[in-house]
Write a structure and sequence with these properties.
With 218 residues, the protein is α+β, with helices and mostly antiparallel strands. It has helices at residues 17-32, 36-39, 44-64, 71-98, 103-112; strands at residues 128-132, 139-144, 153-160, 167-172, 176-180, 188-197, 214-216. Helix 1 runs antiparallel to helix 3 (44-64), helix 1 (17-32) runs parallel beside helix 4 (71-98) and helix 3 runs antiparallel to helix 4.
Length: 218
Amino acid sequence: MKKRKHVSAIFVYNENVSQFLTDALAFIIALSTAPGNTVVTIAATAITAARNHITTAQNAETNVASHTIGTADARDVAVNQVVTDVQNFVAIVQTAANNATDVATATTIVTECGLVTRKPASKSKPSFAAKNDSKVSGLFDFIYKAAGKGVHACFETQESIDNINWVTIKTSPDSRYSFAHGKPVGTKVWLRGRMILSEKKGGAQAWMTPSTPFLYTN
């Protein structure tokens, strides 16, 4: 007998806490809305509890920025609860995929629940990355993938506090630079950047969003 191909239900865990919580929320929303809730059944009480756990963890992550003793431990406990929720929900999706009649149906179940069937391959250096400076509080560090050899470019970064209205905060010919944001600790800031070439080379390029679209200031 030919063995049927196994379809895995995989949640990709991001090492950045804020991004992990954002991804976990997207997963739970996918499970509780169509088409996800048409292929798996999860009690509304379990969904509500999981969303509350995410809110608690997000608040705890914000508190960490205050550098108050004990906030990191509280954050870890809250995040671990979300990890447990995700693992339990992934198991439910995996069971549904295992019980599917064929590979195509199993794959559909996994993807409609917001998961993937294989881990993404390791990525090359991102085109744009943003992070809090690890040594100096109050600074954002921006890293762009440099333009090709002999190509002159500037690198523009914008910020937003509502993910709607954007303001340019710095433009530089350097592909790596820092910016003093001047905001209170724990402020949620969205960031995006772009490369600007000469008009002959195409001018301003498309906006790029870092892998973690927002940061909590430190």
